[in-house]
Amino acid sequence: MPIQIRQDGGGGLVGSFSGGKADVESFVWRQGRAEVTLQREGKEWSVVYTSVGRLLGPRQVIYAQKHRRATHAAWDVMARVIRASRDEEEGLRVARSAAQWMRSANLPDETDD
Questions:
Q1: Residue 86 to residue 113: CA distance in whole angstroms
Q2: Which end of the chain has the least Cβ crowding within 10 Å, N or C?
Q3: What is the pTM for the complete model shown?
Q4: Taking the alpha carbons of 58, 63, 68, 72 in that order, is the dihedral positive or negative?
Q5: Given a cut of 60, is residue 1 above it in pLDDT?
């Protein structure tokens, strides 16, 4: 079983991976109304930060960016999680999990960004 989802003390969900190739197409972190999604789109990594409005309407895209380098995508995930959770430790933990998920996908990393 390559993926285990666990809930941390702050209520956010983080995917953790135990090696092997990832069977999931995207890495998702959620806490409250915020959601940060990382996924591979062709040769690029896509980072999308969405949130539900105060009246619980449809999700709105607050931030979306594509990166050619996995390292930059992991940094971006960390920045979005820190912004959403207001917790640097949570951002670092999620970025490590996202990087581990990207490595388990065994996809080549582009050198230009």
A1: 27
A2: N
A3: 0.76
A4: negative
A5: no
